[in-house]
Amino acid sequence: MKKKLAVWKFSSCDGCQLSLLDCEDELLTLADQLEIAYFLEASSRIQPGPYDLSLVEGSVSTPHERRAIQEIRSQSKFLVTIGACATSGGIQALRNFADVRDFLSVVYARPDYIETLDKVSPISQHVKVDFELRGCPINKRQLLEVANAFLNKRRPNIPNHSLCMECKRRGLVCVTVAHGTPCLGPVTQAGCGALCPAYNRGCYGCFGPMETPNTAALAQRLKDHGMSSQEISRVFRTFNAEAPAFKEESLRHEE
User: Fold this and answer.
1) Among 34, 41, 136, 150, which one is most buried in terms of CB atoms within 10 A?
2) What is the pTM of this model?
3) Residue ranges, the chain, pLDDT below 70
């Protein structure tokens, strides 16, 4: 029998779900083994659970989402988070460094109608997660590898080394060494193919911290290149600001 796949959306931009749709021809090769039972981005057709594999995009930012993820977990044999929002809070977790009520009063005419949590959090803070797939957005080839791995009852073969390895394999000149461009590559997990350094831009940390990131050493290097404490703090507060390694380093440089 075909395995049942479900794809869920929480607070996010839909970019990671679009990466799945972008697989197109590759999905056809999985059609004999996988049945898309729930994926509102692609179809209004809904099949009830339980589900063999659930892919979850987005972070938890409302009481409704906090309840919903518990129900999804109970209906899922395996649950995989996809993207920066689901694995470390995403861009919306930047509000964790301020008081959410200040934002509500500025953005909404009637903030009393808004139901939200004080803090944005990744899925893993609420339920057991079987695997985290990083990226903003995720790499579609890595997504296919994860689906294949769970179909064949094995661990996904996803690299956990730094982005610098991808730069070396592509023969790219280090943008920090060559012209002092701030780059999070030494502490960021590989996965994007060193896209930004290939265009002489520093890595923004889209794939979050690598397995053993030495953020303190990188911060000192950035300081040596003339960055202020405020600038260093902001470098670590982008797509994965709530990831523990990046969050702790950013807090060390607050003024």
Assistant:
1) 136
2) 0.93
3) 255
